[in-house]
């Protein structure tokens, strides 16, 4: 049984929301939700092949963290990555076209769901190997320090990847060299299908950096404002030259690990309870209405706008041509025999 995210101070604070910021958070999370719902539909129709890991339920994490960054900061994550791309302001059309394996996708239709990148948006993937992005993100942070910039790298990974050895090698190097990296553990509580309590001796994952003298804290990852508050603290810490920081985001995925996962390891009642009492989008919507920062009609109009954007992205992805067969030989490192 998953433990529901604890209510944070941000969740119950009495400060009135800033309307512009709150509506942006709502819009950004809703875009991710509607995009992922459409991706799930296209997968069911056979238009998306291979693995497809949806981010539905976890939208507050990347939305809140992205609000803490400045131009030049980098983002890297694992294979549940569509939400991160959208949060980095990558074009939904290009993301969806990559999902359908088309030439207009971010990786020219050759990367699919798990392998997309955008140097222009400082998004470094999208990685299919569990935990592989953590040492790469640590390397990005090293490059920031080596070049004398004040940029910070956000390296996202899940509770399953938190048991990978390369993660701790990265922790050690980052702490030893005071690298400007924030490790964001998106603890959706089930990894690929095994609960944290069954797979981890230490279930408070923010403590995993203690032996490397890395600060860490647990955050309600279903509350975008709690995420932003903790994120600002962590990013400021890393940017100031103090070294790495760990944020464990207690979150929850509503769908299976991937589209092929029926998620029989948990009860439907558990999922329904989280949706009813902790949904990040519904929670923010309730506050917007309660504080009279938006009306039901305002939010319905916003939802329609988002649905139109997602529909346009889906249509674009299906109209885009498939990659030319010659693309098989591009972007591939080949050893050439000397004559």
From TrEMBL:
Its EC number is 1.2.4.1. Its cofactor is thiamine diphosphate. It catalyses: N(6)-[(R)-lipoyl]-L-lysyl-[protein] + pyruvate + H(+) = N(6)-[(R)-S(8)-acetyldihydrolipoyl]-L-lysyl-[protein] + CO2. InterPro entries: DH_E1, PDH_E1_Alpha_Subunit, Pyrv_DH_E1_asu_subgrp-y, THDP-binding. Heterodimer of an alpha and a beta chain. Residues 28-325 form the Dehydrogenase E1 component domain. This is Pyruvate dehydrogenase E1 component subunit alpha. The lineage of its organism: Bacteria, Pseudomonadati, Pseudomonadota, Alphaproteobacteria, Hyphomonadales. It holds the Pfam family E1_dh. It is an enzyme of class 1 (oxidoreductase). Keywords: Oxidoreductase, Pyruvate, Thiamine pyrophosphate.
């Amino acid at each position: 049984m998953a433990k529901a995210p604890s209510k944070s101070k941000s969740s119950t604070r009495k400060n009135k929301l800033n309307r512009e910021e709150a509506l942006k958070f709502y819009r950004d999370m809703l875009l991710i939700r509607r995009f992922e719902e459409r991706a799930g539909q296209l997968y069911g129709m056979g238009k998306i092949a291979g693995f497809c890991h949806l981010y539905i339920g976890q939208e507050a994490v990347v939305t809140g963290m992205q609000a803490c960054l400045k131009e030049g900061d980098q983002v890297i994550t694992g294979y549940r990555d569509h939400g991160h791309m959208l949060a980095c302001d990558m074009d939904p059309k290009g993301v969806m076209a990559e999902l359908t394996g088309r030439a207009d996708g971010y990786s020219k239709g050759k990367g699919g769901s798990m392998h997309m990148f955008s140097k222009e948006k400082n998004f470094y993937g999208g990685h299919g190997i569990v935990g592989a992005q953590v040492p790469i993100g640590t390397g990005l942070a090293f490059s920031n320090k080596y070049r004398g910039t004040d940029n910070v790298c956000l390296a996202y990974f899940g509770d399953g990847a938190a048991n990978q050895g390369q993660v701790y090698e990265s922790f050690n190097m980052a702490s030893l060299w005071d690298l400007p990296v924030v490790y964001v553990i998106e603890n959706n509580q089930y990894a690929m299908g095994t609960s944290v309590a069954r797979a981890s001796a230490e279930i408070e994952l923010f403590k995993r950096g203690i032996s490397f003298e890395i600060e860490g804290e647990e955050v309600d990852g279903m509350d975008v404002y709690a995420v932003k508050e903790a994120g600002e603290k962590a990013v400021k810490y890393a940017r100031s030259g103090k070294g790495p920081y760990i944020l464990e985001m207690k979150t929850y995925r509503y769908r299976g690990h991937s589209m092929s996962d029926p998620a029989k390891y948990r009860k439907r009642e558990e999922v329904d309870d989280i949706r009813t009492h902790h949904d990040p989008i519904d929670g923010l919507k309730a506050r917007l209405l309660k504080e009279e920062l938006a009306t039901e009609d305002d939010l319905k109009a916003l939802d329609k706008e988002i649905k139109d954007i997602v529909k346009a992205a889906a249509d674009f992805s299906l109209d885009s041509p498939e990659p030319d067969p010659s693309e098989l030989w591009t972007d591939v490192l080949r050893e050439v025999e000397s004559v």
